[in-house]
Amino acid sequence: MFKSIAVLILILILISTNSYANQCKVDQVKLQVLGSGGPEIDDGRSSSGYLIWYKNKARVLIDAGTGSSVEFDKSGAKFADLQGILLTHLHVDHSADLPGYIKGSYFTSRSADIGLYGPAANYLMPSTSDYLQRLLGDKGAFAYLNDYVNKRDNADYKIVATDVPLIKGQTYEYTLGENIKAKATFVHHGPVAAVAWRVEVAGCSIVFSGDMSNQFDVFSTFANKADILVASNAVPDNAIGAALNLHMTPSTIAQIAKRAQVKQLVLSHFMKRTLPIQKVTQGIIRQKYRGPIILATDGLIVNL
Ligand SMILES: [Zn+2]
Known about the structure:
Elements lengths: L1 H21 L6 E7 L13 E6 L2 E6 L5 H8 L8 E3 L5 H4 L2 H8 L8 E6 L8 H9 L22 E6 L6 E7 L2 E10 L2 E10 L2 E5 L10 H4 L5 E5 L8 H6 L3 H11 L4 E4 L9 H9 L6 E3 L5 E3 L1
Parallel strand pairs: 3-4, 4-5, 5-6, 10-11, 11-12, 12-13
Antiparallel strand pairs: 1-2, 1-14, 2-3, 7-8, 8-9, 9-10
Helix pairs in contact: 8-9
Bound molecules: zinc ion.
């Protein structure tokens, strides 16, 4: 009798220890918004950019939109601490500050190579590796920085680009550092090559929709049980035409957040057509999704 009780207790201890090991270490991981705006130049916000902090170091940069590098500076993040740069797609408002980060890194202590991950090419957009070459390669607009891409002689580190295949329903996984993994899946963003990212850090998962319309209907599975879902709120519910083909409406965001049972929803990538109606948007989402809805602002830190 005593023996079986002892075995039962031991099993319970093992189960609880194991589930603790898989639990999100909420005190170690934070999300910071660097840019909560879209492509407009008169919305008073920086374009897309996010940081994931782990143990008080900025470890992953997600998107490098216009102005995000200024917010990176203000955040106190150190470029030398980054273990990966993830791009959702190569629209200007998600990628144009990349050369600024690379040039700026010359004046930092970075010595380790860094991975740059983003979508493969389609008929409209270059691949992420090609984008890097066209900017910083031998024939690039900023060829004076080509040591960072093609050789190491005069550069302290190298940027290594990886193109995420655009295959519907597939998920690709990359290890960025100890306890940090990034997963990507192809999403529909009109004619633009785009991926969504799921970053898993110390048992916590933060998912970034990037810009997408959810026409592939893969996203609620991809975002399943995320601790934070960051969703682009670029269009209102009555969007039509090209805007609707590029972006998801608040109703779609609500449906995804509910189906995926995400713990917190962060709305970001606001535009002038969604900024003045944030309360309406929240109301639409609230009809389906019961968790916290956070409205992103530049510099905002979101705790898990
Ligand atoms: Zn876009």
